[in-house]
Amino acid sequence: MSTVSPRTIATMAxxxxxxxxxxxxxxxxxxxxxxxTFWLADLATFAWPFLVLPAVIVFLSAILARRPALIAISATxxxxxxxxxxxxxxxxxxxxxxxxxxxxxxxxxxxxxxxAEFIDFLHRENPDVVVLxxxxxxxxxxxxxxxxLPYQSSSDILSRDRMKVFSKLPILSEMPLAPYxxxxxxxxxxxxxxxxxxxxxxxxxxxxxxxxxRPWKWRDRxxxxxxxxxxARGDLxxxxxxxxxxxxxxxxxxxxxxxxxxxxxxxxxxxxxxTMTRFSLRAAGLLGIHAGSQIDHVAVSPGISVGGWRAGPDxxxxxxxxxxxxxxxx
Length: 330
Description:
By secondary structure, the protein is α+β, with helices and mostly antiparallel strands. Helix content is about 40%, strand content about 20%. The chain is built from nine helices and 16 strands. The strands form four sheets. It has a six-stranded mixed sheet, with no helix packed on it. A six-stranded mixed sheet has the order 5-8-9-10-14-11, covered by helices on one side. Strands 6-7 form a two-stranded antiparallel sheet.
């Protein structure tokens, strides 16, 4: 009976490592270069953590193999894979006690559970502002009846693309933005609200752009984000600004970075480790894991710092809520 020699096994292992290192380098480079221009390349950023993890494994394996050329190629691939995370403008950590808790949650329009679990979650977290997407009429009624947050945005949720804001702070004004950017009409509309924070105005943008499942939806999402960025930048001189919602955009997409740079805002995150806030209900049911991407975000104006960021519990949606503690400038 023939056996495979250790030398043959070592050769096969090196070939496998070389193949993996070249594949990771090629994929990372192509995606980073092309994602702003090509729809499919940008879609690849939704699965970016699933590229970074193999890149780390291949790099460590190359070090153990003691092959300088392999180490160089795998290190380059890993560096390019990590580049989108380190390109993010992020808000500074809070040095004092955060004074404003913001929760953003996509309730999922096909959610079969009752609102009770979500309301219990809000009771525990005691937020100051809640930004909701895909809310249905009976959920809106249950949240109003709970009396948790006394101020609310328009009850005509269809005119707000099924978005809803509840707040402890008085809502002074509310207006959807005109759905046009660069001569193109946008299917949905961001909603601009002004909250009374007792001093400097606090402007909140509730957003939920299209899911980029088709090229036209991708362009629509990008225009939606560009419109919101343009409006938010116009508020920076006179107001503190918060943008919250289901962005349908991972932080590794160039369009997320473009939004932050064009608006002058910063991502309200604590660390760069990904947390999957949008996941497959089927995978969650079969495997008990939240496999997906991170697309629910909060962004803030300079001067606002972050005291905490975490994902909340499952309440029947295909999203997890995001809880962010903010410290506003005095």
